[in-house]
Design brief:
Distance between the termini of chain A: 38 Å
Order of helices and strands of chain B: EEEEEEEEEEE
Strand content of chain B: over 45%
Distance between the termini of chain B: 35 Å
Strand content of chain A: over 45%
Radius of gyration of chain B: 13 Å
Order of helices and strands of chain A: EEEEEEEEEEE
Largest sheet of chain A: 6 strands, mixed
Shape of chain B: globular
Helix content of chain A: under 10%
Number of helices of chain B: 0
Oligomer: heterodimer
Helix content of chain B: under 10%
Radius of gyration of chain A: 14 Å
Chain lengths: ~120, ~110
């Protein structure tokens, strides 16, 4: 059962443009939503994360927008650069339920290509 | 340098053979995890361990086994019972329940 749905599967953006990746979740017990960035042949690395008590979190060119009522969250990459070309995964977990931040449910991933 | 080391990077095995993937961390993290990555399916949790000598099944534990005899090590055995073992396997760790997970570089297993 896929509890986190991610779209689009792939995304092509021109340098300087805005990249937007969307995720929707089903489990209302989820309370921690990280985004991971993965380069080919490497392990994922945490990019930015948000909790449902805020609607937006910004770190540099990366912003997470969160809509609790719609059970959706999205990643916006401003001024996209060729170096941002990677696979991006959204994820979720129920930390307050006694689990840990590492026990994650992942979306299917989005392959982002930024053309120079 | 602190980090998570997975070895080997590439592994080839014949169908029907068990194979063990290594994961070692020197971050002094309590919790460790194994994920499987397949194209178009994201990462799926196989097993996780929050303390030494204790581990829990994840979403796709069938055909896999683990041990956690030392804090630094969390090896994963892919048994012959795993129907589709060819995949990219990722090990991760975290400081118990209070920090995000850090991932290793992965082992690509190909069964022929």
């Amino acid at each position: 059962q896929q509890q986190v749905k991610q779209s689009p599967q792939s995304l092509i953006v021109q340098k300087g443009g805005i990249s937007i990746i969307n995720c929707a979740y089903e489990n209302t017990a989820f309370d921690y939503f990280p985004w991971y960035q993965q380069f080919p042949g490497k392990g994922p690395a945490l990019l930015i994360a948000i909790r449902p008590d805020v609607s937006e979190k910004k770190e540099g060119r990366f912003t997470i927008s969160f809509n609790k009522s719609a059970k959706q969250f999205s990643l916006h990459i401003m001024d996209s650069q060729p170096g941002d070309s990677a696979t991006y995964f959204c994820a979720a977990t129920n930390y307050a339920g006694g689990t840990s931040y590492g026990k994650l449910t992942f979306g299917q991933g989005t392959i982002l290509t930024v053309h120079p | 340098d602190g980090g998570i080391t997975q070895s080997p990077k590439y592994l080839f095995r014949k169908e029907g053979q068990n194979v063990t993937l290594s994961c070692e961390q020197n971050l002094n993290h309590d919790a460790m995890y194994w994920y499987r990555q397949d194209p178009g399916q994201g990462l799926r949790l196989i097993y996780y361990s929050q303390i030494v000598n204790d581990f829990q099944k994840g979403d796709i534990a069938e055909g896999y086994s683990v041990s956690r005899e030392k804090k630094e090590s969390f090896p994963l055995t892919v048994t012959s019972a795993q129907k589709n073992p060819t995949a990219f396997y990722l090990c991760a760790s975290s400081i118990g329940a209070v920090t995000e997970a850090f991932f290793g570089q992965g082992t690509r297993l190909t069964v022929v």
